[in-house]
Amino acid sequence: MQTPAPVDYVRATSVADALSLLQQHGDEARLLAGGHSLLPMMKLRLARPEILVDINDLDELRGIRVDGNEIVIGAMVTHAEILNSPILFEHYPIFREAEKVIADPIVRNKGTMGGSMCQADPAEDLSAVGAALRGTVVIQNAEGRRTVPMREFHEGPYETKVADGEILVEVRYPILPGSGSAYEKVERRSGDWAVCAAGACVTISGGVFSSVGIGIGAVNAEHFTATGAEAFLVGKEPTAENIATAAQMAADSCDPSADQRGPADYKKHLAMELTKRALTRAAAAAVAVHLTKNGA
Ligand SMILES: Cc1cc2nc3c(=O)[nH]c(=O)nc-3n(C[C@H](O)[C@H](O)[C@H](O)COP(=O)(O)OP(=O)(O)OC[C@H]3O[C@@H](n4cnc5c(N)ncnc54)[C@H](O)[C@@H]3O)c2cc1C
């Protein structure tokens, strides 16, 4: 079995302490969250940090809470906590649908939202969800905090706006009253990464889409989304025909590569089909919320 190269290890006692350790050790240091991506990379010698800064003791980075008109998810919140959160289920069922199909319980019990997003695998599910919900990422460094829209967070595969010496501390999601959301994913076997995944979050008012968010993973969609398809739908009725047109536009904007998960044209077809299904279910949920609210 492969073992990582020797590495120093320190447990940070606060975010300030972690930032000071990162500053002290420069690019030789790496943050350790759940370790489900970093440790396998170290075993394969694809990552060779000199020192691991463990942030598992930092309660400041935990918790899911409502803050005004936003839901805030701390960086160290685990996949399992997202899966089981009543707050997220009430406002955004898309989280539960996505988390059910992320890895397995062992990974979900330890893997974190911050680690997932910073690992920035092109098939990472929470990035597709975050794009659909138009989240905002909060990043902290020695000077203070800055925010980056989720749709500008990724700079490419495995690259994000989090620079050396910085920590992703939380992601904030605007609460959209009356919204419906859904997530669809095709994987080769249970617990695997996506061949393709698509999520949608919509609101409907006066019989037409008033807002549309689409998130697409694993098929090289720009910023994990499909802005042309979103713009097409706003102001239109949620008919099967309009949704099918938007889903095709979304698929056309993807540029998947062929790999062990399938050929490019198959993945493109999935992008269309999964976007269609996610939009259809999200729209039905939004209509149901609207009817319930109006006592129908
Ligand atoms: C078998 C398996 C199957 C998986 N399947 C899926 C799947 O289907 N879908 C999916 O989305 N994911 C999947 N994953 C990934 C899983 O979601 C992990 O949780 C995730 O990759 C990393 O989270 P972590 O907390 O373990 O991060 P770590 O491995 O600890 O860290 C990952 C990287 O992020 C950095 N980092 C961690 N936290 C922060 C922070 N707060 N600020 C800045 N940088 C930080 C670390 O330094 C490191 O570079 C799978 C993983 C495994 C092992």
Which terms would index this structure?
Uridine Diphospho-n-acetylenolpyruvylglucosamine Reductase, domain 3; Enolase-like, domain 1; alpha+beta; 296 residues; five-stranded antiparallel sheet; 3 domains; globular; Uridine Diphospho-n-acetylenolpyruvylglucosamine Reductase, domain 2; 13 strands; binds flavin-adenine dinucleotide
List the helices and strands and how they pair.
Blueprint (H helix, E strand, L loop, with lengths): L7 E4 L3 H11 L3 E4 L5 H6 L7 E4 L9 E4 L2 E5 L4 H5 L2 H6 L1 H8 L4 H6 L2 H7 L5 H9 L2 E6 L2 E6 H4 E3 L2 E2 L6 E8 L5 E8 L6 E12 L2 E10 L9 H7 L6 H13 L11 H30 L3
Parallel strand pairs: 1-3, 2-3
Antiparallel strand pairs: 4-5, 5-10, 6-7, 6-10, 8-9, 11-12, 12-13
This protein binds flavin-adenine dinucleotide.
Total number of distinct structural domains: 3
SSE run: EHEHEEEHHHHHHEEHEEEEEEHHH
What can be said about the biggest beta sheet? 5 strands, antiparallel
Uncertain residue segments: none
Q: Which fold does the CATH topology of the largest domain refer to?
A: Uridine Diphospho-n-acetylenolpyruvylglucosamine Reductase, domain 3
**Main structural class:** alpha+beta
The Cα radius of gyration reads 19 Å
What does the model show?
By secondary structure, this protein is of the alpha+beta class. The protein has 3 domains: 8-54, Uridine Diphospho-n-acetylenolpyruvylglucosamine Reductase, domain 2; 59-174, Uridine Diphospho-n-acetylenolpyruvylglucosamine Reductase, domain 3 (2-Layer Sandwich); 180-289, Enolase-like, domain 1 (2-Layer Sandwich). The protein has helices at residues 15-25, 38-43, 79-83, 86-91, 93-100, 105-110, 113-119, 125-133, 150-153, 227-233, 240-252, 264-293, and strands spanning 8-11, 29-32, 51-54, 64-67, 70-74, 136-141, 144-149, 154-156, 159-160, 167-174, 180-187, 194-205, 208-217. The strands form 4 sheets. Strands 4-5-10-6-7 form a 5-stranded antiparallel sheet. The longest helix has 30 residues, at 264-293. The radius of gyration is 19 Å and the shape is globular. It starts with 7 loop residues before the first strand and ends with a helix. Bound molecules: flavin-adenine dinucleotide (FAD). The site of flavin-adenine dinucleotide has 28 residues, from β2, α7, α8 and β10.
